[in-house]
Each structure stands twice: as structure tokens, then as C-alpha cells.
Amino acid sequence: MSLIDVYSQRDEPSISLEFFPPKTASGKENLLERIGRMNVLDPTFVTVTWGAGGTTAEKTIDLAGIIAQSFDVPVCMHLTCTNMEIETIDNALEQCKELGIRNILALRGDPSIRDDENDSMSKFKYAIDLVRYIKEKYGDEFCVGVAAYPEGHYSTEDDSSIEQDPIRDLHFLKEKIDAGAEFVITQLFYDADKFLAFEKMFRETISMDVPIFPGLMPINSYLLFNRAARLSHASIPQYIMDKFPPEIQADDNMVKSIGVNILIEIIDKIYKGTNGRIKCFHFYTLNLEKSIAEIVSESPTLSHIVEESDDNDLSISSDEID
Ligand code: FAD
Predict the structure, then answer these.
(1) How far apart are CA 230 and CA 252, in angstroms?
(2) Cβ atoms of residues 75 and 105 within 8 Å
(3) H or E segment at 35?
(4) How far is the CA of 112 from the centre of ligand 1 (A)?
């Protein structure tokens, strides 16, 4: 199932969900049960991450394949291209075809490699090389999406870091769209104004139609929230920091509940601020369900999903990490 086909048929706001492949068999079993429960949230699509360099290739393909075959939802597999043998990429794409995975998020991965490294690998220096490769070799067999960074991509090339600059990245994002990418998923962010500025630039210079799925990570603990933002080079606006005074930072339940309200505000601001052009919100789940279920249930933009569901008892279990 192409995720664009499903997305295009939906008028109402919806969500999409990212999962990563667990390390153990029991972790996988728990996650599949969780995905089954989260299906009540009627995701427009589900994505499965790929370890850079192919480190999780087998587990990623296995999990993506099981989801594609067990649930009535389009599956998008992430695929990185640097430090990857071309055979590994072809192998992954062939298996996706067999398993009914029709959507690929084409990524560069980290770290990038230099041109003088072996031929097979240097075929892919940037994500655009993978977009072109998939389009040339597989035609419309796959619906290909790409990543974007509302605050600019943070690069370390040749040991020197390059300042984040969303305007510089825009040119390269346009190249990926011109090469055939049909959707964009963004890096996580907490500053809705920065996302809105990015969306406006994208609409003015690249496309009015290509869907952008804003990447949102629920706040499950104060430490993890700060760490995820730092690793993703996402800024946290002062008004959000002010909601977590020192005396509550260690209280995970309190932090989660404040985090739910923050995410609800961000979603509503984006939906209204884009006049409904942004209508599918992509959650970095970290394989957890509780906060997302609460956000969807309580968000004015998304709560219709639960209200309209035949099975609106979410029965969300505890959120332990496997
Ligand atoms: P690119 O589009 O290639 O861009 C990388 C940098 O190079 C940017 O600064 C860009 O401006 C610049 N650039 C692009 N083209 C050119 C050019 N022709 N000349 C000069 N500069 C250029 N990583 C994983 O390992 N596994 C995952 O599953 C994964 N999932 C992700 C999901 C999302 C939604 C996002 C946003 C990121 C994900 N990543 C993942 C991280 C990603 O691999 C890194 O951020 C990586 O550094 C950049 O990938 P990209 O596809 O955006 O690269």
C-alpha cells in the first residue's frame, strides 16, 4: 500500500508512527502487541528505522514485513545509503517488494563517507543518490520519501561542524523532491514557529502539494527529552523550559503530563497555522504508547480519531521499555 494513496484519501487530521526494531524476540513480541493496540489510533502509516550502515538490516526488514502483513496500514521502511554496500541496499529493496512494503524513507545516514572510499559505497554520498537509484532501478514500485530539518541539518564533514541553516538545506531538499521523492518527514522539533517558517519556505520554493509530516517526540522524562533535543539539534523554546521547574524534573508522571499538553499545543498551532495543509503528525514513538494515546485523545485536532473509532477503549498498558 502506498502511503500517499492512503494519505490522499483522508480529509481529517491523522497521525503516523515510527518504531525501531527491538533487540530481543520478547521485545519484538511486546512491540507487536503494542502496535496492535495503537492501531486503534488509525495511523495513516507506520515507519520502521534502519541502523546506519545496515546494522539492524535483518531486524528492520523482519519487523517491517510483519507489520505490513499483520496490520492494515502502509509500512514505510527507513533505508540509509552511506557506508552501505549496494548489494545490501538491493537485497533490502527486493525483500521489501516480496513483503509488500511499498514505501521507503531514503536517507543518507551517518557518518558520511569520503569520495575516495570504495566504489560500491561512494555511489551513495547523499540521500539524493539513493532517491535517484531507487527511482531508476525500481520505477514506481516504491513510494519514496525523504528527511528534512526545520531548524537546518547539523553536519560534521571532514571533522568540522557546519552551522545549521534551513535555507541552505532547502536547495538540496528541492533536488530530492525533483528526483522523485513524494513525501517529507521532518526531524523532531519543539519550536512550532520554526516549523511554520520552514513549511512556508517549502511551499514558496519547492511545492504546494508534497506532504510534510512534522516529526514529534512525546516528552516521557525530563532527562530523555533534553537528550533527544540535544542529539537532534532541536532547540527548546524558553516558554517550554519554564514549564519544568527544578522541583518537578525528577517526577516522570508530572513531566509526562506537562509534555502531553505541550505536544497538544504544538499540534494545534501547526494545524491552524498552516490552514490544515499539515494534517498528518508523525510521532517518534520510541516504541512507547501511553503519551501518544493521551495526546491523540485530548488534542482538539486529533481527538476525532478516538471518538470515531469503533473501539475507543484504548486499553493502553504501562509503558516499560524493552
Ligand atoms: P541528505 O539529504 O543527504 O543531507 C545531508 C546533508 O548534506 C545536509 O546538510 C544537506 O544540506 C547536505 N547536502 C545534501 N545534498 C548535498 C549536495 N549535493 N552537496 C552538498 N551538500 C549536500 N538515520 C539512520 O541511521 N537511520 C534511520 O532510520 C534514520 N531515520 C531518520 C528519520 C528522519 C525523519 C530523519 C529526519 C532523520 C533520520 N535519520 C536516520 C538521520 C539521518 O540519516 C541523518 O540526519 C543524516 O545525517 C542526514 O540524512 P539525510 O537523508 O537528511 O541526508
Answers:
(1) 19
(2) no
(3) helix 25-38
(4) 9
